[in-house]
Amino acid sequence: MSIHFRRQTEKLKKMVLTLGGMVEQALRDAINSLDQRDPELAQRVIRGDRQINSTEVEIEEECLATLALHQPVAFDLRYLIAILKMCNDLERIGDLAVNVAEQAKFLCSEEEIMHVPYDLTAMASRAQMMLKNALDALVNVDTTLAEGVRAADRQVDAIYREMFELIEAAMRENPHQLTQLIHYLQIGRQIERLADHAVNIAEDVLYLSNGEFFKKNAGDENDTIGRIGHA
Amino acid sequence: MGTNPVMDKSMSTTESDLNNANTATVTQPDDRDQLTLEQIAATDNFKSETHDALYQESPIINVKNFNLWYGSKQALFNINMPIAEGQVTALVGPSGCGKSTLLRSVNRINDLIDGLHIDGEMDLNGAPIYDKSVDVIELRKRMGMVFQKPNPFPMSIFENVVYSLRIDGERNKGVLEEVCERSLRGSALWDEVKDRIHESALGLSGGQQQRLCIARAIAAEPEVLLMDEPCSALDPIATGKIEDLVEELRGEYTILMVTHNMQQASRASNYTAFMYLGRLVEYGPTRDIFTNPHLRPTEDYISGRFG
Question: Is B303's Cβ below 8 Å from some Cβ in A?
């Protein structure tokens, strides 16, 4: 690998990790704004998305220039492709964090509900942990850590699967909280999708290390829950 | 790439269009991206598409309205080209486009050719290169040159490197040894040859010989390094080493490099100049030339559609 190309990939890695840090912060702030009923914090997340988007564009441009100028092959090629895909996923996580922040902002203006019917805290902290581990896995191309992210997604999915029934029951019980409950339903869905994007990043690390694509099989139980959610 | 601009043009050609193609002094900016190679080749004073970034750099060499003829055949047409100090500039283009001619004009080794005639200006750090008062030997000392095939002299590695100092009458052994080591380190050859610098240079591999030639060139502490296809006789590993070396020498030296290998230009240079039939077609940051060239012919050439 030429010195020039090595410097370029180091630069790209730093850029992706910077983007990752921004997205982690956005997600943390979005969840905190919900927890602490802090509409200003939520607003900050919404405003910050512009920067995340422009950083993603910068990384893409840098990747394209690197592909055009160095024509990498094998690991180097996979590395650049993985970075391109990752920054796409990170940008989407940023968008989903904005969605959560928007829901949080709305919920601040509504009467507070004392008990969220599903385990939102666990779901959110798992998703955050998954994102952190996926990014850490990238740093040293750590496949064990990346595999761990895929496993953690099952726990998030399990909470998500129960969520509908729990929310439905809560709606029957407290019809006056219908508005808030609908928003909590939305939030759960955003977090589940966001965790899926963290899995994508971890799978990109696995792809990077050995060149095989890891995707959920169509018949996999994990895959079907997505469809229930969207139904 | 849907329609072919050449065909579009020919179908709607009018007399005035033809006149424009042949005589226009400055091509109108709004139709520049529709320029075809035929139009460029038909324009004697073609105005190159020079990217703005070049004007932000401080030029060490400045080529102005430069024309060159071999006998009655014109080889360079109205070249205007500032060469950025401390940067690597690559000259690319199909065979016969004049890139080597331009490179060899910079240190005037073309002067040796019979029937050569030039017109226009070329400056090195503001001083004219083509002036009656210029001492050509002194001028060439300010510009190291590396050729396509490694050309070590049939003497020891040490004597090869310090050759220019010997010519200048340097006798101090300490100075010679110091310059030898510094130059060999500079060309990333020191570790490979330090135990045998008094052995013949002809025993080195091709890639090592080429790095030796670079060491010999930088021993004279030139302002500019001219490289004429420095890797075309080398294998990929040796090529990689030369490219790494170019990257390391950048900043300290200005490097002007002719290459047939477009990937080499893209990997190793900061600026790329695309030439065609003696015209400088497009000249800009390598990154922009290879990701978003302004002119269609440049795009066609770098994508391998011709040449």
Answer: no
